[in-house]
Amino acid sequence: MVSDSVAAVPIPSAANTKNPGKKKRTNRSAKLKQYKIDARREQWLNKGAVKNKGCKDGMDDDVHVPPSSGKHAKQELEKLETRRRGEEDDVLIHQESDSESPSNSPVSANSSVLCGNDSGTNFTGSSSSGGSTSSSSSSGGCCSGNITEEEEDEDEEVEEEDDGCLDDWEAVADALAADEKHQNSSHNEPAVETDSSQSREVTGGSGLGHPNSKPGSGGMVPRGSANARAWRADDAFRPQTLPNLSKQHSMPNPDRFFGGGGPWCRTSVPSNCPICCEDLDLTDTSFLPCNCGFRLCLFCHKRILEQDARCPGCRKQYECEPIETEASVHGGSLTLRLARSVSMIERNQYTFVSINVKAGQ
Amino acid sequence: MVDFARVQKELVECHKDAEGSGIRVAPKSDNLVNLIGTIPGPTGTPYEGGVFQIQINLPEGYPFEPPKMQFSTKVWHPNISSQSGAICLDILKDQWSPALTLKTALLSVQALLSAPQPDDPQDAVVAQQYLKDYQTFVNTARYWTESFAKTSSRGVEDKVQKLVEMGFPESQVRSILEAVGGDENLALERLL
């Protein structure tokens, strides 16, 4: 039970993509396992408390385990029973999949030990919560530990049949989202680490027999899953250093100039020339003729240079005054040259940003 | 050549915010060179409650040259000619910037109504009265507002309609009515 996480640890991302895809199957095999454990526990309790008493659980009416019968016979019986119950449980899960919260508290774990049908609720939509239940309940029934571990071998056989790679992208995306949701919701609970490691055990299903891996895997696996997921734009935990793509590509609101509120603030580049209302092209947007930050298109700038050569934003004289007193063609060529040098700087910034985008994703 | 694309955009923008600012600009004819702007009199001034019409004429170089603005509603104000309605405002002259718009210019005119500058007068008589007998100035300004700015927009339309029904061309009626300050009888005399 402990060991399967080893397989998941070395390649966390691979294990992660594998895991959610198998969620459905995993749930089922986990259910099977849970029911076996529960049945064991009931058996043990029955043995300890009242002899030859039937099952406490209403659902387990058909479980009549003679306490003195042979072990193999018991196991056979349980297998049959748990499989059938696992199928029943499919229905149960669909009904109760939303009640996920109490599964991590020790009280509910105990109650699930006592009442067999509670455990069905604990396997909710996300595989990790199911894992937590199995862990807590197995630790609750410590005396039956030997038996469950023994039975694990048989479980693995069942699970390995289900163990296949998933090739459905949508399922992966759904599962990722579900996983993420669960991690956010149970962020403060201490059970999270063991949660995911246990769930890996349940899902991994291949590398049995590495008993030393549990402490490390508990810490590693969640981290791996965090690394492997892509950030959504509206994610609260998204690092702020990541550039926002939608912001990068969308031009500022063309109405902003007339809408008031600092039309020529330094940081924003208008998409239209505020003078002639024509669209600013790349050269125009990288053209900053005045220190006040007022931007305008090259045509309007040239026109202003021909007249009073004052910046429309701050009414100060443009810096390139002396040349402007010569022929207007020279003024125009000067502005073009200026624009080119300025635009080179800004293009470098753009490429820098795009490199960041690549690195961020 | 007037930049009509920009003028059109300005008109649209001004129309969007007409409820908030109370400032309206409408083309007088369909060539977008002659426009009529309206500003409400600022509250707390003798001009409160009045609606003042301003005749706007866009020069060839607009927006690189300032628009020509002139009150067509009679106003008693130190910086506005009580005869012609000419406005003494720096942004309409040397302090014009192409980044300003008709709306911002009209806003400035509205601000001028609430903050007269008698030291730089357009109408010397009004400025003298403002400096020497402020109370009389306020009374006169309020009287002018009551007489010319409150009903002028509707009254002028009524007068125009009356004169047009008499058989005069509408454009001529409007120009003469404006020239005589909205006096119906004077306009009729001139038309005849």
From TrEMBL, chain A:
Q: What is this protein called?
A: Uncharacterized protein
Automatic annotation (TrEMBL), chain B:
Name the residues annotated as catalytic in the UniProt entry: 88
Sample GO molecular function, one term: ATP binding
Q: Which CDD domains match?
A: UBA_II_E2_UBC27_like, UBCc_UBE2K
Q: Which family does it belong to?
A: Belongs to the ubiquitin-conjugating enzyme family.
- As recorded in UniProt, its EC number(s) are 2.3.2.23
Its protein name is E2 ubiquitin-conjugating enzyme
Keyword terms: ATP-binding, Nucleotide-binding, Transferase, Ubl conjugation pathway
Q: Which parts of the sequence belong to the UBA domain?
A: 157-192
Name the enzyme's class.
transferase
SUPFAM superfamilies in the record: UBA-like, UBC-like
Q: Which domain of life is it from?
A: Eukaryota
Recorded hits in Pfam families, A to Z, give: UBA, UQ_con
Domain (UBC core) ranges:
2-150
